[in-house]
Write a structure and sequence with these properties.
The complex is a heterodimer of chains A (177) and B (626). Chain A is α+β, with helices and mostly antiparallel strands and 177 residues long. Chain A has two domains: 6-60; 67-176, Immunoglobulin-like, CATH 2.60.40. Chain A has three helices and eight strands, in the order H-H-E-E-E-H-E-E-E-E-E. Chain A has helices at 3-16, 26-61, 101-108, and strands at 67-74, 81-89, 92-98, 113-119, 123-134, 140-151, 156-162, 172-176. In chain A, strand 5 and strand 6 (140-151) form a beta hairpin. Chain A starts with a helix and ends with a strand. Chain B is mainly α. The longest helix of chain B has 76 residues, at 380-455. Chain B is elongated, with a radius of gyration of 44 Å. The chains are: A alpha+beta (177), B mainly alpha (626). Chains A and B meet through helix 1, helix 2, strand 1 and helix 3 of A and helix 3, helix 4, helix 13, helix 15 and helix 17 of B.
Chain lengths: 177, 626
């Protein structure tokens, strides 16, 4: 076999098994590994800080006695392309959200978005929800719904499940937690 | 162990690991749903914070069975493991899943936990532990992971140097499974490692002709053809080798290598004219690719072999020019990296918006430092280092933002204290007065209730006399007493008093039941007012407590968190600098290596240009050059 071809085979095999032409040598790898351990330690530490900070923030800004959290989900298997959601509580606009492709995909996979966190007094309140989007065929779709919910002494979680027409679900369903 | 062999069969593992944590059919815990929402967008830090908090709260409850997370707790534990793995926290990943495995769960859940744990061990190169975890899978295996379990088992066997066992597992993988393309390829590699070259070639041939639509399946089919073509080339079966390379898509990730090797296969068979076709395509492609650079020399070499020395000289000249330009680019890249340009390019927002950001780096304007590093960046170790650097940058930004939040929190607390402190003493004094009045009334109510209760068994009509009746009874007692005190009271008067007393007693006795019923009704009505009063009282107490809690007791917590954030920020800054330096060093080493290769190719081209000109000149008829 000519020399140039043998050289080609050697080079090709190296490339074939996916190794970069000049990969980090063992010392570099050990250094990277050591750094990786340190990065993991930092991540653990920062995750702990974030959890504690979340609790502090919640306690300070949204005490349990007045806390209201509103969540948005898509009905399972629904094909409506949700573009935007607007929420009013007791006639006051509190949230307006436009969805990116990634967010919509996450909703379709069963994720739930916390769209609003705020404070309301105990008692009965109204929530008005307006959704806008497109149907599978490309037609515009919008719907508005008004609901009431009771806020007790504990934190209140309100879940809104959005569905397109013909899905067998209500266009907007309110769930209380 | 050397990680290199992993590359041969690691295909599909990434797909396996990227599997989303499955959301339950009916979501009962909104915060768990929120964690899935974050994770699905690749926001694993936020997803972990949310899920860690939820799980800690869940296990801290006296009755966790009443918590909504109870319905998803196994899924949540699995998800934590997945998120940690995706967030490159291998040391922590598996901790939560191990807890599920050791817990009192049914067989299907335990098997899924064992599978996930094995997957984590495999990722961490802990092959013995991975096999041990897989050995715990027995009995009822959930259908959705059945193929994944076997695929993982085969991969672990391969990585452990047990290709024979891997072959046995992969042979039984159903062809219709999602991982069919990957398992077909891996079976070919397993057979090859097992020394069964004939069957390995047959298997790779099958894997290279599978029907595929998904990008990953198409890529693994291309990879099968590339490996098979190379094997056939090595065994000097150039015809089949070339045909196999032809099956690789022209727009796939292995296209350049396939074109280069297809050309060599033709050239090795002496078909230089045919070699011109793939190499001709290749030389027009992105010149930073090593296959393209190699083709720049191979292409004129083919012309030279075809005695077209003039054309060869011209192409060698063009290659010389391009290679010189590329050396300039590499030098510029090294310079830019030394000036910190590479790390700046990595942290650009637009590079992080795309999942294929490593590939996109080549298209970044004004970032020559990235042109030559895509191959390096595609390697696992370097990719991990880069991702760590980006994660550190993300953590740094979060920590800086949190530090600002503390100032805002302290402002809020100060303003709340300024608002409440002057008014609360007055409010408290008023409340104390109302509180004492309320207690008196409540004690009265308790006494009445107790008395009414006792009257059910021991009737006391006089207790239900009205105020007028009580006054009247008092007067009658007084009149009777004064008459008796006077000594000789007229009998008529005493009789009148007795009659009046009798009339009063008659009324009290005959109306007793009606009055007792009415008294209970009144007490019941009073209770509704007492209930409202208590609700208002509780509401006030809560509001009063909330007022204090809104500004008292935060100082120590904020100070501690501030210290933790400062300390973490310091660590992040130090490790980030080290990580950045390590990345730059490896990148510069890589570029130097590429430069050396380019210089060698440049020298080769230079000699080849001269040689081709000489040959072209000598092949011309005498006098033609004048």
């Amino acid at each position: 076999m000519p020399l140039i071809i043998r050289l080609f085979v050697a080079v090709s095999l190296v490339l074939c098994i996916g190794i970069a032409a000049a990969r980090a040598d063992e010392a570099d790898r050990q250094q990277m590994k050591g750094l990786d351990e340190q990065v993991q330690d930092i991540k653990t530490d920062v995750l702990g800080i974030a959890a504690e900070l979340n609790l502090l923030e919640e306690k300070l800004l949204y005490p349990s006695g007045t806390q209201l959290a509103v969540f948005v989900a898509l009905a399972q298997g629904d094909t409506v392309r949700l573009d935007a959601v607007q929420i009013q509580i007791d006639g006051q606009p509190v949230a307006r959200y436009i969805y990116s492709f990634k967010e919509l995909e996450a909703l379709r996979k069963g994720g739930v978005q916390r769209i609003y966190v705020g404070n309301v007094a105990t008692g009965t309140h109204t929530i008005e929800v307006a959704v806008g989007g497109k149907l599978e065929g490309g037609a515009d779709y919008s719907h508005t719904g008004e609901f009431t919910f009771d806020k007790g002494v504990g934190p209140k979680l309100v879940g809104l499940t959005v569905a397109g027409p013909g899905s067998g679900h209500e266009p907007i369903e309110l769930g209380n937690w | 162990m050397d990680r290199a062999p992993h590359r041969w069969f690691a295909f599909g593992v990434a797909a396996l690991l990227a599997a989303n944590p499955c959301a339950s059919a009916e979501l009962r815990d909104l915060y768990y749903g929120e964690a899935l929402f974050e994770a699905d967008q690749g926001q694993f830090f936020d997803a972990l914070v949310r899920l860690d908090t939820e799980l800690a709260q869940h296990y801290g409850l006296d009755e966790p069975d009443l918590d909504t997370l109870h319905y998803h707790v196994n899924g949540a534990e699995f998800s934590v493991g997945d998120f940690e793995l995706n967030y490159r926290m291998h040391n922590r990943a598996g901790r939560a899943i191990r807890a599920v495995l050791e817990g009192n769960v049914d067989e299907a859940v335990r098997n899924e936990a064992a599978f996930r744990l094995a997957r984590i061990h495999f990722q961490k190169d802990q092959l013995e532990e991975a096999l041990h975890a897989l050995a715990r899978i027995q009995g009822d295996v959930p259908e959705e992971i059945r193929d994944d379990v076997e695929f993982l088992r085969a991969n672990v066997y391969l990585a452990s140097g047990r290709p024979h066992d891997a072959v046995a597992v992969l042979k039984h993988m159903p062809e219709s499974a999602d991982l069919a393309g990957f398992s077909a390829y891996n079976l070919g590699i397993a057979l090859l490692q097992d020394g069964d070259v004939t069957h390995a070639i047959e298997q790779l041939d099958r894997a290279g002709q599978t029907k595929a639509r998904e990008r990953a399946d198409l890529a693994i089919r291309d990879k099968s053809n590339l490996v098979l073509g190379t094997m056939l080339f090595e065994s000097a079966d150039f015809g089949r080798s070339e045909q196999t390379f032809d099956r690789v898509r022209l727009d796939g990730p292995y296209s350049n290598q396939a074109l280069l090797r297809a050309g060599w296969a033709e050239a090795s068979a002496g078909h230089y004219d045919r070699a011109l076709v793939p190499w001709g395509i290749l030389v027009e492609r992105e010149p930073t690719d090593s296959a393209v650079q190699e083709a720049m020399l191979a292409y004129p070499h083919a012309y030279a072999e075809l005695e077209a020395h003039g054309r060869a000289a011209m192409l060698y000249g063009r290659a010389l020019e391009t290679l010189s330009g590329e050396i300039g680019k590499v030098d510029a890249s090294i310079g830019a990296i030394r000036d910190g340009g590479f790390l700046t390019a990595l942290t650009r927002e637009e590079t992080r918006q795309d999942r294929n950001w490593v590939v996109r780096l080549r298209q970044l304007p004004d970032a020559p430092e990235t042109f030559y590093l895509t191959e390096l960046m595609a390697s696992h170790d370097f990719q991990t280092a880069l991702q760590n650097y980006l994660d550190l940058e993300d953590l740094r930004a979060r920590l800086v933002s949190w530090r600002t939040s503390f100032d805002a929190f302290e402002d809020i607390i100060r303003l709340r204290a300024a608002n409440y402190e002057p008014i609360l003493p007055g409010v408290d004094a008023e409340f104390r007065e109302l509180d004492s009045q309320m207690r008196v009334r409540l004690e009265q109510r308790e006494r009445i209730a107790s008395r009414l209760h006792s009257m059910l068994t021991a009737p006391r009509p006089e207790f239900l006399a009205t105020a007028d009746e009580r006054i009247m009874a008092g007067r009658l007692d007084a009149i009777s007493a004064s008459l008796q005190a006077a000594g000789e009271a007229p009998a008529l008067d005493l009789e009148r008093v007795a009659r009046l007393r009798g009339a009063l007693t008659w009324r009290l006795e005959t109306e007793y039941h009606a009055r007792l019923t009415q008294a209970h009704k009144d007490l019941f009505e009073l209770d509704s007012h007492v209930k409202d009063l208590k609700a208002n009282y509780d509401s006030f107490v809560r509001s009063r407590q909330a007022a204090t809690h809104s500004y008292v007791g935060y100082d120590a917590g904020i100070a501690r968190l501030r210290d933790r954030v400062d300390s973490a920020l310091q660590r992040v800054t130090i490790v980030m600098a080290r990580q950045g330096h390590a990345i730059e060093t490896v990148a510069i080493d890589q570029l130097r290596s590429r430069r050396e290769r380019l210089v060698a190719q440049q020298t080769q081209a230079r000699y080849a240009v001269a040689d081709s000109y000489d040959r072209a000149r000598s092949s011309q008829p005498a006098g033609a050059g004048r």
